[in-house]
C-alpha cells in the first residue's frame, strides 16, 4: 500500500452510530482464534492512540483541537473493535487470548524485524509471555475446569517458558537501546505496535485481577501485571525519544494503518474483514490529517518520515516452530542493563530485587505446582491405582 496515493476517508466524513459500535460479537469457538488475536491487537493500538493523544494535549495547546477531533473517532473505533469480544468469554479465557496475542504477534514481529538487537528484544519478551500463558492455563484448569486449548485452538503450545518467578528485574535492566532516528519504517511500526499491545495487557490485568475471590488468582494477576509493566517499559524504550510529538503521532497513525491493513489481508470472517477495511480507510484519513499538521507546523515533508509504501503485512498464523526454537536456545538469557547475557552474568541489582519481591514465595510457581497441560484438563488424566 502506498500511503500517499491512498487518501482514505476524510475526517469530516467519518462517523459511527451506536449500532455500528456495538454490533454482533465474534464467536468464541466458531471463529478462528486469529480473528480474536486481531481484535485484541487492534483494540490495543486504538487505546494506545487515545493515550498518546491525551498526553500530547497536556503539553501542546495548539494541537488540542486536532487531537480531540481525531481522538473522538478513535474512541468510537476502539469501542467497535473491543465490543467484538463475546460475553461468553470468562475473564480468564480472555486472559488466555491476550497471552496468545503477545506470543504469536511478537514472534511474527521478531522474525520480520531487520535490526538484530531489536529482534533479540522481541524474542526475549515473547518467552516471558509464553510462560504467562502456561501459568494462566493452570489457573483456568483449576478454577473453571476448562482447557485453555479451547481458546488457543491448537495454534500455541502450553508449556513453561522463562519462569515468571525469574522475570522480575530492577528497572535499569528493563531499559533497552532505542531504534534511533534512522531506523527502518518497519522497526518503528513494530515498536509502536508491540508497546501498545503490552500496555493493553497490563491495564487489563490491573483491572481484572482484583475481581477474583481466589487468593492465588489475585496474587498471580498482581505478579504478572508487574511483569507486563516491565514489558511496557522495555518496548517503550525502543522508541526514539528525540522525535517531535507530531512525528510520534504520525508514526502511530501509520502503525494503525499497518495494523488494519495486516488484519484485512488475512481475515477469514467476511463481516469482520469489512470492518478492518473500513477502519483502514479511516486511519488513512487520520494519517493524512496529521501529515498536513507536520507540513504546517514543522515545514517537513511527511514522506521523509514514512517513505511511500507500507511493509508486507504481519503474518497472523501459528509461530509454534519459531517459538520452540527460541525457547530451546534462549530461555536462559537474562538482562544486565540494556544487554542480554547468560544467566551467570545477570545484573546483581535484578537478583537482589527478585529476592525481595519473591521473599514470601511466587504465586506463578504456586499455581503451576505439579501442573502439566493435558488435553481436556487435569480431570481427563487416567487415574493411576496402586
- Kindly estimate the percentage of residues that lie in beta strands according to DSSP: under 5%
Q: Name the shape in a single word.
A: globular
Write the H/E string, N to C. Answer: HHHHHHHHHHHHEEHH
Number of strands: 2
SS-derived structural category:
mainly alpha
Order of strands in the sheet with the most strands?
1-2
Mean pLDDT: 96
Round the Cα radius of gyration to an integer and report it. Answer: 21 Å
Largest sheet: number of strands, sense, barrel closure:
2 strands, antiparallel
Contiguous runs where pLDDT drops below 50 for at least 5 residues: none
Instruction: Give the helix level as a range of percent.
Output: 55-70%
Number of helices: 14
Termini distance?
65 Å
Describe the structure.
This protein starts with 17 loop residues before the first helix and ends in a 19-residue tail after the last helix. The chain has helices spanning 18-21, 33-59, 64-82, 91-112, 116-144, 149-152, 185-208, 215-236, 245-266, 270-298, 303-306, 320-330, 348-357, 363-367, and strands spanning 334-336, 339-341. Helix 5 (116-144) packs antiparallel against helix 8 and helix 5 (116-144) packs across helix 12. It is an all-alpha fold and 386 residues long. It is globular, with a radius of gyration of 21 Å.
Amino acid at each position: 500500500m502506498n500511503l500517499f496515493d491512498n487518501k482514505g476517508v476524510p475526517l469530516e466524513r467519518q462517523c459511527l452510530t451506536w449500532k455500528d459500535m456495538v454490533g454482533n460479537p465474534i464467536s468464541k469457538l466458531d471463529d478462528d482464534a486469529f480473528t480474536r488475536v486481531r481484535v485484541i491487537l487492534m483494540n490495543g493500538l486504538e487505546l494506545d492512540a487515545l493515550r498518546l493523544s491525551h498526553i500530547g494535549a497536556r503539553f501542546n495547546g495548539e494541537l488540542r483541537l486536532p487531537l480531540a477531533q481525531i481522538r473522538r473517532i478513535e474512541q468510537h473505533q476502539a469501542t467497535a473493535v473491543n465490543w467484538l469480544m463475546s460475553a461468553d468469554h470468562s475473564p480468564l479465557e480472555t486472559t488466555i487470548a491476550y497471552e496468545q496475542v503477545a506470543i504469536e504477534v511478537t514472534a511474527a514481529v521478531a522474525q520480520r524485524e531487520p535490526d538484530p538487537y531489536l529482534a533479540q528484544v522481541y524474542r526475549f519478551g515473547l518467552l516471558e509471555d509464553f510462560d504467562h500463558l502456561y501459568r494462566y492455563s493452570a489457573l483456568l484448569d483449576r478454577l473453571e475446569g476448562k482447557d485453555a486449548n479451547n481458546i488457543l485452538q491448537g495454534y500455541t503450545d502450553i508449556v513453561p517458558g522463562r519462569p515468571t518467578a525469574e522475570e522480575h528485574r530492577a528497572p535499569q535492566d528493563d531499559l533497552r537501546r532505542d531504534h534511533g532516528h534512522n531506523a527502518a519504517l518497519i522497526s518503528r511500526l513494530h515498536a509502536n505496535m508491540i508497546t501498545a499491545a503490552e500496555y493493553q495487557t497490563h491495564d487489563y490485568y490491573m483491572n481484572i485481577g482484583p475481581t477474583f475471590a481466589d487468593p492465588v488468582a489475585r496474587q498471580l494477576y498482581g505478579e504478572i501485571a508487574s511483569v507486563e509493566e516491565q514489558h511496557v517499559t522495555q518496548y517503550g524504550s525502543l522508541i526514539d525519544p528525540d522525535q517531535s510529538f507530531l512525528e510520534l503521532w504520525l508514526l502511530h497513525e501509520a502503525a494503525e494503518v499497518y495494523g488494519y491493513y495486516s488484519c484485512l489481508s488475512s481475515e477469514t470472517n467476511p463481516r469482520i474483514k469489512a470492518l478492518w477495511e473500513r477502519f483502514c480507510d479511516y486511519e488513512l484519513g487520520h494519517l493524512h490529517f496529521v501529515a498536513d499538521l507536520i507540513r504546517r507546523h514543522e515545514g517537513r515533508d511527511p514522506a521523509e518520515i514514512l517513505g511511500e509504501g507500507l511493509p508486507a503485512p504481519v503474518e497472523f498464523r501459528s509461530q509454534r516452530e519459531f517459538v520452540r526454537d527460541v525457547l530451546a536456545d534462549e530461555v536462559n538469557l537474562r538482562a544486565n542493563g540494556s544487554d542480554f547475557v547468560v544467566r551467570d552474568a545477570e545484573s546483581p541489582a535484578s537478583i537482589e530485587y527478585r529476592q525481595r519481591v519473591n521473599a514470601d514465595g511466587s504465586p506463578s510457581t504456586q499455581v503451576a505446582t505439579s501442573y502439566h497441560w493435558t488435553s481436556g484438563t487435569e480431570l481427563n488424566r487416567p487415574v493411576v491405582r496402586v
